Give the backbone structure.
Amino acid sequence: MKLQGKTALITGASKGIGRAIALAFAAEGADIAATGRNEEELASLHAAVTGIGRRCSVVGADLAQPDAADRIFQHASESLGDIHILVNNAGIGSSASPRPVIDYDDAFWHRVLLVNLTVPYLLIRRALPQMVARKSGRIINVASIVGKVGLLHGAAYTASKHGLLGLTRTLALEVTGSGVTVNAICPGPVHSLVADIRLAYDAQRTGRSIEEIERSATLLGRRLEPDEVAPLAVYLASDDSAGMSGQSINIDGGVLMGV
């Protein structure tokens, strides 16, 4: 029970990596404040977390709305008290509008940067004061390996994840000695609905089969599963990682090495 007595706020928790992290945290003793856009999936998560015996508060929210960060944090705090762990997981992927920069959609650019970078910043601004005052806290930003390299026809997503890593490193410097750590997880290709859409786009663009692209996506010959990412989040949220801050950790099946 590495997270006994802790409360975690997790965005994008209704499915995929966010859901896997929420369930892994609950299994380690944490209470969960979760947000997402799908009410049915949130209800399913609530049932799963409470079934483990942990408290769970869920709130449906579109993070692109101006008051989303305030509303989410207020709801989580009023429902469960102090937030010990913040996981910024929610994001808009490149699959929503893949295209080269010369043909880019400005509105899509602004929406991706808002949800993927500005909202994590706003939630950090709300969670950090109580963490510093308590001299204990964990901030985990779910970025991507394309926060370190480029992604064809994915400028907004790539820029947002590069920015999230910059925010992670700068914040780690600023909270030195406070008992708060700030780290980022950089997943590679993961099984998800959003990734499936991007895979289909790349298959159509290149003339290769989805199966062929999937086999060559990692050195493992497959994509990762969300449950394979969650243990790393547990480590970063626990006291075991007290000596680690400002890091961006790849979990990518060997796609990037030495980056």
User: Anything to note?
Assistant: Residues 189-223 form one domain. Residues 106-134 form the longest helix (29 residues). The mean pLDDT is 96.
